[in-house]
């Protein structure tokens, strides 16, 4: 049976409020369609402006079949390109990050300007026009210190997302922060299982002793409904907004991205074992109070975030295969914060390092069980797993119409 039609049939026939059928979590052909119809079409969070501090700073990323390089040019603009030399296709930048005056392909030394123009191609024939062979661009946008790319030939309008999330992000001045630490773990599970696990705290009490010292398990925090009827959430929003911080729950009409500010437990101000600050210097000079809780920012399919008064923890999800997903976590602090003076790195990273590893084991056990021939979709808890239900609804409503289109999405070629 045609995989597109098979996938569409299962989506149309699925039970509302239930997990997906087995192939959505395990089948390589279903995974290829996820990549083509979502990951190669939509805006993806890649990293932060502060990771590209000066002209020539670059970072690289692999999105499915597409190697991409992001670089800051001489005018301060962040550009993204397909990381594939226009000569014979070799990767131009083959390290995760670095700094270069020009981008030089190590194979035959074709040399590109930081804006992608080809500057030098040794001993080519007469009539060779360098202007025809610049690096192929990838759509790139920066908002509030976050860098997003889109591989589609005609990206969706970024303006609505910018308009919604920028007011939440700007007070934290993440463009001026620095990365104190980052880690990447590979979870042996489908990317949707990683997201489903993230979107509920039904599992938290039994699995996350460190996180549960400060992070509330209330469904109004982890879900998408009912926050405006939770007196504690409403009171917290009022306090934060009175100090100039946008805080109320907002979600875009398609359910792809949302933001809200949530209180931490009791008198906690940071994700530490004591609930006390992890960093003595505020993340932003514009935010003077500790009691802002955590700004929770989500954007499917690549990122969830926790931004506090003293630091931020950002997460990036990138699929590797039908049964493997890379999760990259970055801890951001004030640019002038000094390790060993303003913060202890082990204390700063402990809670989420432990939580990430616990979530990895959970996802892998979930994935292992789904491989069973006896697996069948099960019901989500309407009380505790509203966020999971919303994620699965988003996925079905997003990919369904694209499956029905037929044909392959129009993408920029990397050849």
TrEMBL record:
Entries under Gene3D superfamilies matching the protein: Naphthalene 1,2-dioxygenase Alpha Subunit, Chain A, domain 1, Rieske [2Fe-2S] iron-sulphur domain
Q: Which GO terms describe its molecular function?
A: 2 iron, 2 sulfur cluster binding; dioxygenase activity; iron ion binding
- Is Endoplasmic reticulum set as a keyword in this record? no
Q: What is the lineage of its organism?
A: Bacteria, Pseudomonadati, Pseudomonadota, Alphaproteobacteria, Hyphomicrobiales
For this protein, the record's SUPFAM superfamilies field holds: Bet v1-like, ISP domain
The segment(s) forming the Rieske domain are 43-149
UniProt superkingdom: Bacteria
Required cofactor names:
Fe cation
Name of the molecule in the record: Aromatic ring-hydroxylating dioxygenase subunit alpha
Q: Which PANTHER family match?
A: CHOLINE MONOOXYGENASE, CHLOROPLASTIC
